[in-house]
Design brief:
Layout (H helix, E strand, L loop, with lengths): L15 E3 L6 E3 L13 H13 L4 E3 L7 H8 L8 E6 L6 H15 L6 E4 L7 H13 L6 E4 L3 H11 L4 E7 L11 H7 L3 E5 L13 H13 L3 H9 L5 E3 L6 H9 L7 H10 L13
Parallel strand pairs: 3-4, 4-5, 5-6, 6-7, 7-8, 8-9
Antiparallel strand pairs: 1-2
Helix pairs in contact: 1-2, 1-9, 3-4, 4-5, 7-8, 7-10
Length: 292
């Protein structure tokens, strides 16, 4: 039986893990929505709903993603309680009052009264104390369950930890794929030590997934064949091999969603993980954390 064709979550389910301080177990394979509004809208909505059917209940979006929040709002209509819903405030809006106002606009577009997690999209000019005070106000009002950050390097994380207090940061959402592994040097270990979930965005790269004929691509294909899986499923599973790791691949049609969901049931051996690690070397430590 192929991984992608296994039973739905009620029968087996996608692996779920604790998500920082959110006090909830969240699916390790979720759904991203960057550029999803470029797709045919009914098809994109159907894809998100298919993801929910398959247990990919972690949906990530942001105010800067164009119409993505409205697409998500339509997709989750009538199913809000199934979803771990995440959105983000852009740094220019992240004053104390601006954070609250931005969240309320996102809630309106999403047609919901709450977010499960709300993120600062990247470090900006507003003091973190102001942004986090806005987050805490939203939490007190019941409009968000938890909050976190995105694209934060270790110095940023330390500043956020000091500004927000111990145990407040639920997650750090970062660029992470087989050909961009910068977070493994410092960011990922720091987050693990502090109980912060790491959420990988752009897990297939940005139009740069390894070609099947390349040496690294052949490694993925061989491992996939041994599991009756696909190379993309193997790649996703590698990215969530750490205990506090999650990923949010975007898919705009139901077939791609179904393929992504198959990674949530895949188990790779240590030897296979080592082969992938060797095929996709990390490269030198980065001077600064990469982001898209």
């Amino acid at each position: 039986m192929r991984v992608a064709d296994r039973p739905l979550p009620g029968q087996e389910g996608i692996e779920r893990r604790p998500f920082g301080d959110a006090a909830l177990d969240v699916a390790v394979i979720g759904q991203g929505t960057w550029y999803i509004d470029d797709a045919h809208r009914p098809t994109a909505i159907a894809a998100l709903r298919r993801g929910l059917d398959l247990g990919m209940t972690h949906i990530d979006t942001a105010e800067m993603y164009g119409e993505a929040e409205t697409v998500v709002g339509e997709a989750i209509a009538g199913r809000r309680d199934e979803v771990f819903l995440v959105s983000k405030v852009v740094p220019s809006n992240a004053s104390r009052a601006g954070t609250v106002a931005a969240c309320e606009r996102s809630l309106a577009r999403l047609r919901t009264d709450r977010l499960d997690c709300y993120l600062l999209h990247w470090p900006g000019s507003h003091p973190l104390e102001e942004t986090f005070a806005g987050f805490e106000r939203l939490r007190e009002q019941g409009k968000i369950l938890s909050w976190g950050v995105s694209n934060f390097d270790v110095p940023d994380l330390k500043a956020a930890w000091n500004a927000g207090g111990e145990g407040r940061i639920a997650c750090n959402q970062v660029l992470y794929n087989l050909e961009e592994r910068a977070i493994e040097y410092a960011v990922l270990p720091w987050c693990e030590r502090h109980g912060i979930a790491t959420v990988a965005y752009s897990p297939f790269g940005h139009g740069s997934f390894p070609e099947a004929r390349s040496p690294a691509g052949r490694v993925l294909a061989a491992i996939a064949a041994d599991h009756g899986a696909t190379p993309r499923q193997v790649a996703l599973r590698f990215l969530v091999r750490h205990p506090f790791s999650f990923t949010i691949p975007k898919a705009s049609n139901a077939d791609h969603v179904t393929e992504n969901a198959g990674a949530g049931l895949l188990e790779l051996t240590e030897a296979e993980l080592d082969r992938i690690d060797t095929a996709f070397p990390s490269g030198p430590p980065p001077r600064r954390l990469p982001m898209l």
